[in-house]
Amino acid sequence: MKKYSKVLGASLFVITLVSACFVLFKQYSRQQKVSNEVKSIKIGVCIYDEYDTYVSTLIQEVSKLAKQKEMETGFAITLDIQSASGSQITQNDQIENFVDKEYDALCVGLVDRTDASGVIDKAKSADIPIVFFNRELVEEDLQRWDKIYYVGADAAESGNMQGNIIVEACEKDFDLIDKNKDGVLQYVMLEGEPGHQDALVRTENSIKTVMNAGYTLQKLGDEIANWNRAQATTKMATWIDEFGEDIEVVFANNDDMALGALDALKKSKIEQYPIIVGVDGLQNGLESVKKKELIGTVFNDYRGQAKAIVDMAFALAMKQDFPKSIQFVNNKYVYIPYQKITYDNVQEYIRLLEQ
User: Fold this and answer.
1) What is the pLDDT of residues 81-125, one digit of tens each?
2) C-alpha separations of 120 from 96, 114, 322, 326 in Å
3) How far apart, in whole angstroms, are the C-alpha atoms of residue 103 and residue 301?
4) CATH class for the region spanning 156-299
């Protein structure tokens, strides 16, 4: 009887082991089948305007990293990049086209950050996940679905750094900056565009940081220049005609507008230029910091943002977990840190962009 029990027990063990192996084999076969079936993915990319220098640089990096991802993973990645040329209606149509073509993931730089509903509704109806970037949509929209995320940077940080650059310059030589010797910093502000989150927050925080450091400021002018160098040149030329040498500080929400202000100054008869600060840290801005034409800028890490966008879009398209390198804030936001650039460290960033 004992011998029979031992044989029965051994038989049951073998049967259980074979069953377990069979289940594991089926699971593996299923995974292999899925892997073999998915040979390529399609990612639709929408930007608000192809003429924005920072956005175009960011998208060039996205394209470069997508090609690297192809080589690393062996999956073909179709990246379809469309510009809305400043029209939210056009962008909604582009999203609808991506949905009709059954794209696997979407990456969207909104035209109007307050009007994301059309984009979200179209993508959600087709169960296509979205990575928003560059233009932070309102929080209520971001919470509407568990398959939408945002990649960008903390705008308050950039404003604080701009303010700190001005404070440090004043600490070194306030008497030189304060041209009219009244103890007050007369300034003008070039803003990106109406309603843009980064423009609003940078504007507020840059001024607040300088004031919190104990300096008194007087606003001479504040104009929208839509992130555009030519528009900034026009605005600055008007201020030069009106205020002349009284302008002591120029705050610009990005480097293109800072360089536009510089262009206007070079065409003027101003003998002592005001100090100028920007944001982005792209090649032209860095060269002007190196020449001491801009007092400084803030590096908006397009490479870090592009990597996050590509890694997240790929994972969403493949229905995989996000890489551990993706660090979320409130499970929705990925903020890539800004970095302050002045003459003292600008060469490091010039070398970085040359790599």
Assistant:
1) 999 999 999 999 999 999 999 999 999 999 999 999 999 999 999
2) 11, 12, 21, 22
3) 28
4) alpha beta
What superfamily does domain 39-153+302-323 belong to in CATH?
Response regulator (3.40.50.2300)
SS3 116: coil
Query: Is the pLDDT at 6 greater than 90, yes or no?
Result: no
100: Cα separation from own chain's centroid: 27
How far, in Å, CA of 33 to CA of 265, rounded? 65
Amino acid found at 171: E
Q: Where in the chain is the domain with CATH 3.40.50.2300?
A: 39-153+302-323, 156-299
Strands (E) located in the chain:
40-47, 76-83, 105-108, 130-133, 148-152, 184-191, 216-224, 249-252, 275-277, 296-299, 333-335, 339-342
Pairing mode, strands 296-299 and 76-83 = unpaired
pLDDT, tens digit, 9 for 90 and up, residues 50-82 = 999 999 999 999 999 999 999 999 999 999 999
Which whole-number Å values give the CA distances from 104 to 129, 265, 343, in the listed order? 8, 49, 44
Mean per-residue pLDDT, 339-344: 98
Q: What does the pLDDT look like over 173-186, one tens digit per residue?
A: 999 999 999 999 99
Strand partners, 339: 299
Establish how many alpha carbons lie within 13 A of residue 270's alpha carbon, considering only the half-sphere containing its beta carbon.
25
The answer on pLDDT for 189 being more than 50 is yes
Mean pLDDT of the residues in the chain: 91
